Amino acid sequence: MAEGGEVRLEATTTKESAADKHRSEKRKSDTDATMTSSENLAFRIFLRENELSNALKHFPADFTLGNFRAVTEDDLADDYGIDDDNVRAQLMRAVNRAREEYDEREEAQTRRRVHSVVVNRRQSEVSG
After folding, report:
1. In the prediction, which pLDDT does 112 show?
2. By the 8 A CB rule, do 56 and 33 touch?
3. pTM of this prediction?
4. For residues 49-53, average pLDDT
5. How far apart are CA 14 and CA 53, in angstroms?
6. What domain range is 7 assigned to?
7. What are the residue ranges of helices labelled H in 1-72?
8. Per the structure, how many domains does the chain have?
9. Are 44 and 56 spatial neighbours (Cβ–Cβ below 8 Å)?
10. Distance CA 91, CA 73 (A)
């Protein structure tokens, strides 16, 4: 009976491990879904602000602003079926704006980081 108990204990442990794994995967997928949905929301807001909400129908439901910044004119025609030259041109102007805004944000963050490092070094030189 001790062997049977051990087998049950191992089976229970295995089930608990599988349950823990499932909970962990669910938390990860919930986090990924939240992040994806917020990134998708940013994409939707960007299109709305650029008066291109009607173009949403061409993109997958989980499309993000990062995906949009990576799009080329050929992608718009070949992958997303946007055959209208005017619509493609409008979207490419929006893609370029999205890239510029991203670059500006990245540059500003870099300047803040560099400034912080310089200030910290000066403070340590004065203190030390």
Report:
1. 87
2. no
3. 0.62
4. 96
5. 50
6. 2-127
7. 2-49, 65-69
8. 1
9. yes
10. 8
